[in-house]
């Protein structure tokens, strides 16, 4: 099996704008398939509404956007943090009014989309950002919007890319999304055969998805205790804390008052919780 690789320099560097721009300047894009991923292409062929608002975050060379335009879609937005890449894309699509190319941080992006396409964006993010990813995706989708695409169903020795597995993803996205599909992709490219999950996750719009900054937790035992206390709140459906214990995602039927959360963790003076807007 071939290895997916990004780094041209040590992966200890922050995975920021400079890091990703360096990859494109060095043409070190080992994750780039050079074509639309077949499972995503198959799904695009099923979308009937050509005016659907579609977003592709961490878009890379965005073969998916090219295919959407070829199929007659009229409202495509792509966003990436790497200036070199974005400049190339703006030049490439300069005469096409059906696509908007954005240079920026996905997590600061504002908009409302019917469909968001995931293709090697999730796996490029540090795992500590996964709760933030769920929160932002839920925020950007319309009430019945869908997150579709591919997630790796394997681990990597060095990241990016960062891997994962079905159980982890089910726990991460539960209650925030309805799982229309999350299963082994049937038509991946040979290099990724049997290592990708195809997802079609529909926003669970009645539920509230909120992200909080958390201070004071230093171990998984304390994390489990705090998460358990929050799960006991009436209406709370799911609680998930990130890998460095700095952010917590709460899915609930109605938003829980911040004062309620603060009171619950007040038994330890080190614990502080603040809502992220």
Automatic annotation (TrEMBL):
Gene3D superfamilies, per the entry:
3.30.70.100, Vaccinia Virus protein VP39 (3.40.50.150)
Q: Does the keyword Phosphoprotein apply?
A: yes
Name a single GO biological process: methylation
Q: Name one GO molecular function term.
A: methyltransferase activity
Alphabetized Pfam families for the sequence: HMA (PF00403), TPMT (PF05724)
Per its UniProt record, what InterPro entries does this chain match? HMA_dom (IPR006121), HMA_dom_sf (IPR036163), SAM-dependent_MTases_sf (IPR029063), TPMT (IPR008854)
What CDD domains is this protein classified in?
Answer: AdoMet_MTases, HMA
Q: Give start and end of each HMA domain.
A: 215-266
Alphabetical UniProt keywords = Methyltransferase, Phosphoprotein, S-adenosyl-L-methionine, Transferase
- SUPFAM superfamilies per the record? HMA, heavy metal-associated domain, S-adenosyl-L-methionine-dependent methyltransferases
What is the name of the protein in this document? Answer: SAM-dependent methyltransferase
> Which species is the source of this protein?
Flavobacterium arsenatis
């Amino acid at each position: 099996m071939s290895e997916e690789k990004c780094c041209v320099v040590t992966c200890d560097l922050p995975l920021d704008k400079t890091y990703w721009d360096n990859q494109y300047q060095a043409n070190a894009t080992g994750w780039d398939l050079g074509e639309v991923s077949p499972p995503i292409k198959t799904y695009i062929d099923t979308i009937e509404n050509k005016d659907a608002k579609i977003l592709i975050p961490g878009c890379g060379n965005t073969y998916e956007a090219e295919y959407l335009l070829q199929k007659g879609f009229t409202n495509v937005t792509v966003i990436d943090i790497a200036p070199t890449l974005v400049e190339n894309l703006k030049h490439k699509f300069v005469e096409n009014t059906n696509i908007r190319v954005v240079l920026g941080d996905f997590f600061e992006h504002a908009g409302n989309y019917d469909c968001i396409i995931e293709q090697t964006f999730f796996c490029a993010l540090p795992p500590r950002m996964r709760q933030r990813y769920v929160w932002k995706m839920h925020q950007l989708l319309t009430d019945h919007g869908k997150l579709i695409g591919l997630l790796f169903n394997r681990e990597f020795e060095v990241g990016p890319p960062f891997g994962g597995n079905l159980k982890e993803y089910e726990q991460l996205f539960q209650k925030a999304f309805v799982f229309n599909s999350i299963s082994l992709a049937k038509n991946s490219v040979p290099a990724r055969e049997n290592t990708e999950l195809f997802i079609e996750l529909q926003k669970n719009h009645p539920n509230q998805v909120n992200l909080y900054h958390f201070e004071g937790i230093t171990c998984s035992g304390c994390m489990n205790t705090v998460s358990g206390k929050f799960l006991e709140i009436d209406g709370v459906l799911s609680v998930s804390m990130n890998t460095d214990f700095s952010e917590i995602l709460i899915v609930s039927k109605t938003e829980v008052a911040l004062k309620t959360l603060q009171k619950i963790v007040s038994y330890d003076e080190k614990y502080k919780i603040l809502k992220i807007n």
